[in-house]
Amino acid sequence: MDKDLIIQVQGEQIKRQLAQIEWFQEKFNEQQFLLNEQHSLLQEQRSLNEKLLLEVRYLTERVAELENNQKKDSHNSSKPPSTDIGKVKRTQSLRGSSGKRPGGQPGHKGNTLEMSESPDLIVVHLVESCTCCGMNLQGQSSQGYQSRQVFDLPPIKLQVTEHRSEIKNCPCCQAVNRAPFPVEVTQKVQYGTELQKLAVYFNNYQLLPYKRTSDMFEDLLGHRINEASLVSMNQRCADNLAGFIGELKEAITAQPVLHADETGYYYNGARNWLHVLTTEEHTLYMPHAKRGTEAMDDMGILASYKGILVHDFWKSYLEYDCTHALCNVHHLRDLTFCQEVENSPWAGQMKGFLLELLQKVNQCKEKNIEAAAPEDLLCWQQKYDGLLEEGCQMHPPPQKQKGKRGAVKKTKTQNLLQRFTDHKESILKFAAHFNVPFGNNLAEQAIRMMKLKQKISGCFRSGQGAQTFATVRSYISTSQKQGITAMDALNIAFNGIPSLAKA
Fold this sequence. Notes:
Layout (H helix, E strand, L loop, with lengths): L2 H68 L96 E3 L6 E3 L14 H13 L4 H12 L5 H14 L1 H12 L3 E11 L2 E9 L4 E6 L4 H7 L8 E4 L11 E4 L1 H13 L4 H22 L7 H21 L17 H11 L1 H4 L1 H4 L8 H17 L5 H19 L4 H10 L8
């Protein structure tokens, strides 16, 4: 075969092979491109799956949180009973049966209306004729009387007293002399102290708003007192109590056990706070725009207080250098939630332990025992520690997820376990010191008055109005705790010098 022909054939073969190689290269590149596209899509899908997984996890936790919040009511949280409207009524209660029948107990003194030995008015009804034969009996002597008494109010009428100051000229020196008016009569026309104290009583104790107080006076007396006058009456009462509030602060600072709480109210469209410090014999209210330590410092007591402070674990209280006792009534409600909603056996065990311990402490108090025996206290603490250890095993802390920033979210039970671990002494303070109560009901009862006022009267119109209200209520509440009625206390406030010694 011709050499040139062979070379030509081989060249064509090489060309065909090169073309095949190029074709395979193109196919390979196409496959490589598709693989890269698939790999990229796979990476995107993995990233999207991870994001969706995190989102689903977050939404699952959020739904569980919202569902748990819906399950909260007054029996398993600190929410007030008014929020229970529309929810299924539960029959469970933190209070056990006393075993007593309803109504007054043996030895209880009743309040039956009884006849007075000195009636204010006696009306004699005479027998004029015989109901049998009609004979005139007006001249016959009486054989006695049968008495019945009616307790009622005399007709209510506004009494206007005109004070006239006599004017005389001295014949010797020709000086003009005028008799002095009583010290309480300072204006040409004014309201007397009896009416003023009644207005303050209805505004600040019965919690009537100004308009309804004005309506009441108009309906009862036929005379309408304008709202500006009512404001002035309240302010005059509060001004007279400045010295009393100073004495009250000094007395509260010296108390061995003090209860603290706070609640919100609205003024000028913003949320403000009413703070209270209270004992069995004292009550001090103070309004403030803040809830935390700034407000408590302005109250001027906790910064220097060295006794035992009972509160509901609001962390601002923990900033103060005093002995702390936590409210176990709050803990019982929280444990009830953990037991019923999060199905925690530990919560039920700890709840039972606290109630059993309360019963033992009450039995000691009934026997006039002032403090627990050291061996009893040690036994209670060991049982408490054992329950905590079991709880930590049942509910270990959650593990931090890789790539997720921030604190790891805990369940209510896990948070409560942490609190019971960190604040053991404060929780068991009622068992170590019998003068410390189991809960903070004293402060909660005092603070509930503000919620009642908002339901009846609405919000305050001014910051000064809130301060006046707090001052007057501090005085009335303290006076009542020491055996003085609200009206008698207001009488002293308007006609005397109010002091803690008189309260």
